[in-house]
């Protein structure tokens, strides 16, 4: 069975909005850690919370709309690898922002969407420049998830892009055109 199904506009828009956010936020995160630019943290956190909301909406939409048909003309190992990669990315769209919120919010660093404060900062009474975690376990779990699992997400993202380009250039199928909304 060849997959010729047309994807809905919301599916395509959710995919590319979240993809663009991840493509921008991951290098920004690495840069922030290297430079400790506090102004960038402000934007990174705000956009991360928004991405979390978009990811939840995307998942609800995907459940409502159903999954695209699978092109089973490809070798079994490719289908398995594609399924694993897609699930890692779907879980990452929730896991990366959630772990960032755990890192920042539970760590006492504050959580906000631009000027709207969701969790206020928790400065140390002895040193107001040092933040005290609200919950050390959740904070440490968030740090691990946000700073270590990003490498798994990055590998899956690279594999996803390579797979898309393979479909387009080598297999010459319509997978990439579908995701760009060009097969209408």
TrEMBL record:
The keyword Ribosomal protein does not apply. Keywords: Cell membrane, Electron transport, Heme, Iron, Membrane, Metal-binding, Transmembrane, Transmembrane helix, Transport. The keyword Iron applies. It is a multi-pass membrane protein. Residues 8-181 form the Cytochrome b561 bacterial/Ni-hydrogenase domain. It is found in: Cell membrane. The chain crosses the membrane at residues 12-30, 42-61, 81-103, 137-162. Its cofactor is heme b. One of its GO terms (molecular function) is metal ion binding. One of its GO terms (cellular component) is plasma membrane. One of its GO terms (biological process) is respiratory electron transport chain. It comes from the Bacteria. Pfam families: Ni_hydr_CYTB. Belongs to the cytochrome b561 family. This is Cytochrome B561.
